């Protein structure tokens, strides 16, 4: 499912226009991204938690030349799935 399909489903389920559904989805994504970028953990109970995680510097290898290279430390976005979400995915049909 892509974003346009998600907008269609949300608009239909919420009984609203596609334009309104897209606005809400866009604002939700912008808010989550902005908060996580500023180091705030965003928890949606039952769905999951978005957070910034620190990745340590490490040594890697160039696959073409097999030479070692330094990979710098950086922050990455992380998501931990919530219990309800995990249970729904693992539910047997």
Would you spell out the secondary-structure blueprint of this structure?
Blueprint: H1 3-14, H2 18-37, E1 42-44, E2 48-55, E3 58-61, E4 68-71, E5 74-81, H3 83-90
Antiparallel strand pairs: 1-2, 2-5, 3-4
Helix pairs in contact: 1-2
InterPro entries: Hist_DNA-bd (IPR000119), Histone-like_DNA-bd_CS (IPR020816), IHF-like_DNA-bd_dom_sf (IPR010992)
Pfam families: Bac_DNA_binding (PF00216)
Family: Belongs to the bacterial histone-like protein family.
Write the CATH architecture name of the largest domain. Answer: Irregular
Number of strands: 5
Q: Output the CATH homologous superfamily of the largest domain.
A: IHF-like DNA-binding proteins
The geometry reads as: elongated
Read across the widest sheet, the strand sequence of neighbours is 1-2-5
- Relative strand content: 25-35%
Catalogue the unreliable spans: none
Whole-number average pLDDT?
95
List descriptors:
alpha+beta; 93 residues; elongated; single chain; two-stranded antiparallel ribbon; 29% strand; 43% helix; HU Protein, Chain A; three-stranded antiparallel β-sheet
Task: Write up this protein.
- The protein is α+β, with helices and mostly antiparallel strands and 93 residues long.
- It folds into two domains: 1-40; 41-93, HU Protein, Chain A (Irregular), CATH 4.10.520.10.
- It is 43% helix and 29% strand.
- The chain has helices spanning 3-14, 18-37, 83-90; strands spanning 42-44, 48-55, 58-61, 68-71, 74-81.
- The protein has a three-stranded antiparallel sheet with strand order 1-2-5. Strands 3-4 form a two-stranded antiparallel sheet.
- Helix 1 (3-14) packs across helix 2.
- Belongs to the bacterial histone-like protein family.
- Keywords: DNA condensation, DNA-binding.
């Amino acid at each position: 499912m892509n974003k346009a399909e998600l907008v269609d489903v949300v608009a239909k389920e919420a009984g609203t226009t596609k334009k309104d559904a897209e606005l809400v989805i866009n604002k939700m994504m912008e808010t989550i991204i902005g908060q996580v970028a500023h180091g705030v953990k965003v928890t949606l109970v039952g769905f999951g938690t978005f957070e910034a995680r620190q990745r340590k510097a490490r040594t890697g290898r160039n696959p073409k030349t097999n030479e070692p290279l330094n990979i710098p430390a950086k922050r990455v976005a992380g998501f931990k799935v919530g219990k309800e979400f995990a249970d729904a995915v693992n539910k047997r049909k």
